[in-house]
Automatic annotation (TrEMBL):
The gene is fgf17. It comes from Takifugu rubripes. Transmembrane segments: none annotated. Belongs to the heparin-binding growth factors family. It comes from the Eukaryota. One of its GO terms (cellular component) is extracellular region. It is found in: Secreted. Keywords: Growth factor, Secreted, Signal. GO terms for molecular function: growth factor activity. This is Fibroblast growth factor. PROSITE patterns: HBGF_FGF. InterPro entries: Fibroblast_GF_fam, IL1/FGF. One of its GO terms (biological process) is negative regulation of endodermal cell fate specification. PANTHER family: FIBROBLAST GROWTH FACTOR (PTHR11486).
Length: 278
């Protein structure tokens, strides 16, 4: 390879260095310093070794180097912006379903609980769920006092506690999968998740034992929860309003008004005598 710019003559290409000769003077280009050697004759010519990169840097013009530096800065900024954008895309987006599921499993102890009153109609027995102390069955008729249930919200999700309005016991499920009534419903065994199915029926899944549902047979007897599935008819219920007496005892009684007689005033007596009506 030969390079000639009017001042340099490249005589021999060495690997990995170049042997450079200049008739009048010798210039060593290395880093930021440039050294010039005066001519001492052909016999006194000195040999100078330089790499191709040092040769290119030493022979480059200042305006060219300035343009190259600006391009390098621009390219560096461009790659930095692309890297930041790639890092933002690689950051995983929050899983809102997992967040809602996690928050729904936490009991809300600060907010005021919302209480709803209704009956649970069993699809298999054709009767309503009733809580008579520790005994839980689905044999109550419409409007039965034991079929009136108070459903308390446990979290902002669909988790509820079911309590009998007459007995005061909560619907719970023990570790054997049996439905029982307990006076205290603070444990997770007494918390159920309301699941609205595609056929508009409602299934009640226990919060502690996942996959166990409230179910009753055709005779209204509770079924062991470990044998239940969501698609079974035994776990399907319908919410119905209670048709029994109203919750306030004074509403079903007619109000009686009593009239009291007071002595007539002097003006009323004068009006009676004159025959005018005041």
């Amino acid at each position: 390879m030969f390079v000639h710019d009017g001042r340099w003559r490249l005589c021999r290409l060495g690997a990995p260095q170049l042997s450079i000769f200049r008739p009048r003077s010798l210039i060593a280009a290395g880093g930021s310093s440039v050294r010039t050697f005066p001519r001492r004759g052909w016999a006194g010519r000195q040999r100078l070794s330089a790499t191709p990169w040092e040769l290119w840097i030493g022979s480059a013009r200042p305006e060219i180097m300035q343009g190259i530096n600006q391009r390098c800065v621009y390219i560096s900024i461009h790659f930095f912006v692309l890297w930041c954008h790639a890092q933002g895309e690689n950051h995983p987006s929050p899983n809102f379903k997992q967040y809602v599921r996690t928050q729904g499993e936490v009991s809300d102890q600060l907010s005021r609980r919302q209480v709803r009153v209704y009956q649970l109609y069993s699809r298999t027995s054709g009767k309503h769920v009733q809580i008579q102390g520790k005994r839980v069955t689905a044999t109550a008729e419409d409007g039965n006092i034991y079929a009136r249930l108070l459903v308390e919200t446990d979290s902002f999700g669909s988790r509820v506690r079911i309590r009998g309005a007459e007995s005061g016991h909560y619907l719970c499920m023990n570790r054997r999968g049996k439905l029982v009534g307990k006076p205290n419903g603070r444990s997770r065994e007494c918390i159920f998740s309301e699941i609205v199915l595609e056929n508009n029926y409602t299934a009640l899944q226990n919060a502690k034992y996942e996959g166990w549902y409230v179910a009753f047979s055709r005779k209204g007897r509770p079924i062991k929860a470990s044998r239940t599935r969501q698609n079974q008819r035994e776990v399907h219920f319908i919410k119905r309003l209670h048709a029994g007496p109203p919750p306030f005892p004074n509403m079903d009684q007619s109000k009686h008004f009593e009239f009291f007689r007071f002595s007539a005033t002097s003006r009323a007596k004068r009006n009676r005598k004159s025959g005018t009506v005041s």
